[in-house]
Design a protein that fits this description.
- By secondary structure, the chain is an alpha/beta fold.
- It is built from eleven helices and twelve strands.
- A six-stranded parallel sheet has the order 2-1-3-4-5-11, sandwiched between helices. A six-stranded mixed sheet has the order 7-6-8-9-10-12, sandwiched between helices.
- The longest helix is centred in the N-terminal third of the chain and has 20 residues, at 2-21.
- The radius of gyration is 28 Å and the shape is elongated.
- The model is unreliable at 19-24 (pLDDT under 50).
- The structure holds beta-D-galactofuranose and zinc ion (ZN).
- Residues 157, 197-198 line the site of zinc ion (ZN).
- Residues 48-49, 51-52, 126-127, 143, 181, 183, 211, 237, 266-267, 287 line the site of beta-D-galactofuranose.
Length: 334
């Protein structure tokens, strides 16, 4: 028995020496192969608003490595040509999917044809695109912007009767977002339809606020110098509203439930809900930026060979000064 043990021991020593000498030292077991991540190229249009920041965060959180994704992110800084560049880059890099948050509805046919020729599925988020060939994108995830606008004008109609203003002229200062963005097109359409069907409603002016606070401030400040009268602001996003409020303050004009001017705003980001709760904004219409989970699910459906819905609408609500509460703020993810 002893001899056997001695033989085994000397054999082990020999093996180890041999392995070490031929340089192929005995390693631990081989690393498991890198789990194959789904490579996604995401072209985000910019970082112009609180809404956009929340939208980007939602996408980064959902398309994370622990969720099985390798995300290539590009911020186009509000320039469509930068989105074209990003998409061509993603094609070159051989991503598995392209996700696009388009700055405007038009101009996408040729670059998305290149993605299609490369066999790359494209998912659109937020604003919509108008293309000749609808097969250039697999799915769109976003808001029903027309419903958002209709929510706002129906609320205004009701508020006017609650305030016994039915026989007063309603002069609306309309602050528009980026021209050609679906959010701008449809929130504007809802307002125009309402003005056309209410004889005492009119547009005092249409200002181009680009969905930014700085621009919102400048165009309202310049408008106030004209002395034109108005008693409602219909602002197509919260950041332009914040800029408008600063211009109103500087001009000594009052707004909100106890002021002379009714303020209606879109997005319902946290800071806007705080202003609504504080009695400075009358109505916040929600535009839900949390597209990340839906996009991740769409990609998983495609990975599983399923055909997802072409249009996936997110759920949205609204908050007025009459019904907003502290809990509304504490419960919200953005
Ligand atoms: C709406 C989105 C708009 C937001 C703005 O879905 O496209 O763009 O309302 C953002 O805040 O800039
Ligand atoms: Zn009506």
């Amino acid at each position: 028995m002893k001899q056997t043990i001695k033989n085994i021991a000397s054999l082990l020593v020999t093996c180890t020496l041999l392995a070490a000498s031929c340089g192929c030292a005995v390693k631990s077991e081989p690393e498991p192969p890198e789990k194959d991540l789904i490579v996604v190229g995401f072209s985000q249009l910019g970082s112009e608003s609180d809404w956009r920041i929340a939208n980007t965060q939602s996408m980064l959180d959902a398309l994370s490595e622990e969720n099985g994704f390798d995300l290539l992110f590009d911020n186009a800084k509000q320039k469509q040509e930068n989105q074209f560049l990003a998409i061509r880059n993603f094609i070159q890099q051989g991503v598995d999917y392209i996700v696009l948050a388009p700055i405007a509805e038009t101009g996408w046919d040729s670059v998305l044809q290149e993605a299609k020729d490369a066999g790359l599925p494209v998912i659109i988020v937020d604003r919509q695109i108008q293309v000749e060939d609808e097969s250039l994108y697999v799915s769109w995830v976003g808001s029903d912007f027309l419903k958002e606008g209709r929510t706002a004008v129906q609320w205004l109609e009701n508020e006017i009767s609650l305030k016994r203003m039915q026989n007063e002229n309603i002069r609306i200062l309309h602050i528009q977002g980026t021209d050609g963005a679906t959010a701008q097109i449809l929130r504007t359409h809802a307002l125009n339809s309402a003005v056309a069907s209410h004889p005492l409603w009119s547009i005092a002016a249409r200002l181009q606020g680009e969905f930014t606070e700085a621009c919102g401030y400048e165009v309202v400040r310049d408008f106030l110098e004209t002395g034109e009268s108005f008693n409602v602001i219909y602002s197509e996003n919260d950041n332009m509203t914040f800029g408008a409020m600063q211009a109103l303050d500087e001009a000594g004009l009052t707004y909100g439930p106890d002021g002379d001017i009714i303020i209606i705003t879109f997005d319902a980001v946290h800071a806007a809900l705080e202003e609504c709760l504080a009695g400075n904004i009358n109505l916040c219409v929600e535009c839900n930026p949390m597209h990340g989970p839906r996009v991740a699910n769409l990609i998983r459906q495609l990975e599983a060979g399923e055909t997802p819905e072409k249009l996936v609408y997110v759920d949205e609500t609204w908050f007025s000064y009459r019904r907003i509460s502290e809990t509304d703020l504490s419960e919200r993810p953005y």
